[in-house]
Amino acid sequence: MPLNLLHVIQRYPPAWGGSEAYFARLSRWLVERGHSVEVWTTDANDLSAFWNSKASRLPAGESFDGQVSIRRFPIDYWPLRRYLLKGLSLLPMPALKGWVLPVNPISFGMRKEAKITQKKFDAVHASAFPYLFPCLCGLKLARRLGCPFILTPFVHIGPWNDPNNAIRRAYLAKPMVRLLRESDLIFAQTPSEVQAIQQMGVPAEKIRLQGLGVDTTEVTGGNRLQARSRWGAMEDQLVIGHLANLSREKGTLDLLEALRIALEKNPSLVPQVRLVLAGPSMLPNLEKDLKRQPVLTSVVSIVGPLSHVEKRDFFAGIDLFCMPSISDSFGLVYLEAMANGKRCLGYKAGGAGDVLQGTGGEAVEANLGVLSDALFGILTLQESYQQISEEAIERCQREFLWQPKLELVEHEIIELLRSRIRS
């Protein structure tokens, strides 16, 4: 049953992000399966382009990603935008609130196209929270066409030990819950996300537990010696890797502070460890702040964004992957580390808490002291962490291959359409 699908998402590669990369993979795979996929997105390259007109953007208009048709709509800006949207979001108008969230990438062109396009689609599939404007454009079009509206929200639920945390409140605010309830089908990534959505009054029969996957050919086979030489790491040192948008939310600051505490507890461990921070930095004062921490100065290497080859080398070169993030709906990067046989450490937060509780992972309470104690224990047992974990590799091959994850999406969409025909 060939499908004609519309995907609506806040950004699309080459813009870098987890939901963006997933939808690009899904779109390409569906086209390879004989379906037709069009993507509506914005011209934002950097996330900050959602609200900052000076941030990096991509050319607006039509283009192709292989056989996937891409339409990039320009984001609209105006003076005092943040204050106007904040004011509008406070009005007692539930239907308006999702459109005017200050974090939104607002594109009047996309909204207009949803109202006037003559194209027909079998289903509209939108993502991701908290960027509701594109999702609502997709919902508006789906209702106009009378086709199903499908949502992959990537709900972030924050630290498990604080069920009323700010991240959970933001991702399950009233406009998000309203959209969840109006969706015809929802794909969630982890059991904790499923539970959180159900607690918002969304019927269980609407929700499918999907989960993400990893393509081992994309992330394995790197050069360990070359990577460690680049970082100035000796072969007998324990190298801790951290790959993310370097930020407080992704756990960068907690990791640095926890490592500092662990090393100050036993300074003799300093020559035995190196921490490699990779990825674009959201922390403009990071290097300056590190210089004020003598115990970390000789230990930390900041290497910036990685190419595909450098990413493979990164995973080959590290011994432990640590990302104590509180803002991940799944944590795909943990799978990439495990596919290389590397053990992972992170917080019981978001979907990562589910992923890390299996073989190859260790999830600790979202607490700086607990994280520091875990790192201290690892540093004193570093030889065991420098060995490849065959169990982690086997788990990835058993639980986290892309093919069944993508087949589930295709199957559920087809079943939804067939059920509509039958009824």
TrEMBL record:
Pfam families, sorted: Glyco_trans_4_4 (PF13579), Glycos_transf_1 (PF00534)
Q: Where is the Glycosyl transferase family domain?
A: 227-394
Q: Which GO terms describe its molecular function?
A: glycosyltransferase activity
Mind telling me which CDD domains this protein's record contains?
GT4_PimA-like
- InterPro entries (alphabetical): Glyco_trans_1 (IPR001296), Glyco_trans_4-like_N (IPR028098), Glycosyltransferase_grp1 (IPR050194)
Q: In what residue span(s) does the Glycosyltransferase subfamily 4-like N-terminal domain sit?
A: 17-209
Output the superkingdom of the source species. Bacteria
Report the PANTHER family cross-referenced here. SULFOQUINOVOSYL TRANSFERASE SQD2
Its protein name is Glycosyltransferase family 4 protein
